[in-house]
Design a protein that fits this description.
With about 180 residues, the protein is an alpha/beta fold. It is built from seven helices and nine strands; from the N terminus they run βαβββαββαβαβααβα. The strands form two sheets. Strands 2-7-1-8-9 form a five-stranded parallel sheet, with helices on both faces. Helix 1 packs across helix 7.
């Protein structure tokens, strides 16, 4: 059975960008698609980027035990990882990567303590702020909310098994690929 690798880090650190680069290196890697109650951003496709579901359906799935983890992120929307597809891939010996937030990672640790937890860190606080502002997908109030959450997440870096600094996307993706190979 493969060991699950969990990738977490603060908002705008580049988790999605690093994972896209990783998929170029590891095209057969199963990346769990998270569910969320937030609306899609321009260009996002349901079932590809996220499973976009309404709050009532999300809550029903929580009650049914269908999530490996779930959390309310930035105080507004719920995100979660559906348990079924992850368990299925792991039982077949396939590598699985979860790209989730700190709250979700802590929940996974409770149910799957043998998973390997990787923190993706920014090269500096200023660079993290620049990345968040530069992507232009949040208004000022949302940016401030996300930065407050990011400070808490950065403080938890020591909780993780490993830290990868996202100074360049290609290097961070190669390092994460190495982690996946170690977990097989």
């Amino acid at each position: 059975m493969s060991r699950l690798v969990v990738l977490a880090g603060p908002t705008a650190v580049g988790k999605g960008t690093v994972v896209r680069a990783l998929r170029e290196i590891e095209p057969t890697l199963y990346l769990s698609v998270s569910a969320t109650t937030r609306p899609p951003r321009p260009g996002e496709v349901d079932g590809v980027h996220y499973h976009f579901i309404d709050r009532d359906d999300f809550d029903r799935r929580i009650e049914a035990g269908e999530f490996l983890e779930w959390a309310t992120v930035h105080g507004t929307n719920k995100y979660g990882t559906l348990r079924g597809p992850v368990d299925e891939r792991l039982s077949r010996g396939e590598p699985v990567l979860l790209e989730i937030d700190l709250q979700g990672a802590r929940q996974v640790k409770e149910t799957m303590p043998d998973a390997h937890f990787v923190f993706l860190a920014p090269p500096s606080w200023d660079e993290l702020v620049n990345r968040l502002v530069g992507r232009g997908t949040e208004d000022e109030a949302e940016r401030e909310r996300r930065l407050a959450t990011a400070r808490e997440e950065l403080a938890a870096e020591g909780w993780f098994d490993q830290v990868i600094v996202n100074d360049t996307v290609e290097r961070a993706a190669r390092e994460l690929s190495g982690v996946l190979h170690e977990s097989r």
